[in-house]
What does this fold into?
Amino acid sequence: MPPPTESPAATSHGGLVDSAVYIRGHRFASPSGLAETYRCLQEQDGAMAWIGLYRPDIEQITSLAREFRLHDLAVEDAINAHQRPKLERYGHTLFVVLRAARYDDLREEVEFSELHLFIGPGFVVTVRHGEAPDLAAVRRRLETEAQMLARGPEAVLYAILDQVVDGYAPVVAGLENDIDEIETQVFGGDPNASRRIYGLSREVIQFQRAARPLLSVLDALADGAASADEELRRYLRDVTDHLTQVVERVDGFRHLLQNILTVNATLVSQQQNEEMRSLTAASYSQNEELKKVSSWAAILFAPTLIGTVYGMNFVHMPELNWRFGYLFALLLMLLVCGTLYVIFKRRGWL
It folds into this structure.
């Protein structure tokens, strides 16, 4: 019967996903439960148990804490999660918190998950609170390298750290591609660019919070916090070098996004100024047209007013019987219209 794997499908319901007992780097047993794992570990001298859990319940964590004498504070952190990367030593047991990252190409988003490790004499307990990292791949790789696995729990810790840091590389590539797309959006005048810049900036900050604290964890391990094995320290220093490159690139992303946001704000401001100038020019043009229309309306209103006066049906209107009344009315209309035309022309309304 093949051993269980720590794949997402196998861990969708949580609990124990894989448990193995190793002797000198080789899998000796694949217990089906925690009690059987404890029994195998007690019966075999020099054995190491590697227990993998995915979002375990309190009973499982309590059982592990009782068997391996895990500290209450570490157990509480493992249950509640939402911890930043750190390394704590409780007697002969190390408690390590890691934050793995995975880039979702479909949604173009970064997903973060939390991983807790208990490392002690003869045992490794991994508690995952997300799909990443792929611990099944780590286990398979180590099981093909018996010499490395024979180095004990510290070798497992190194392999998991290496997997987590290697998993950051696709995330960096994905973020870099997103930034290139954002630059195209910004200079293309896309109105949604600001929203995407803000969202990507949040992801970069979260990535910094996941990766940067891990540097201090690796430094402490490389300085001998976990093991006196010089060869493992060399491997850990190599992981530190890779992580340093990741952190430096992510820091660069954050500064670049700040610059892009500034450029976008400048371009948006320029666009708004251009729109305001266009609106002002249009408003000015409309005002000029309105002046012309108003001027002609006033000019045409004068003869209409005079004609209206003469069109009233009153009996006692001296002008109606005056010989020159008609000519006077026409001249008055021309005079008023000409006067208004000259006034409006001088003011630039016509």
Remarks:
- The chain has ten helices and seven strands.
- The longest helix spans residues 230-310.
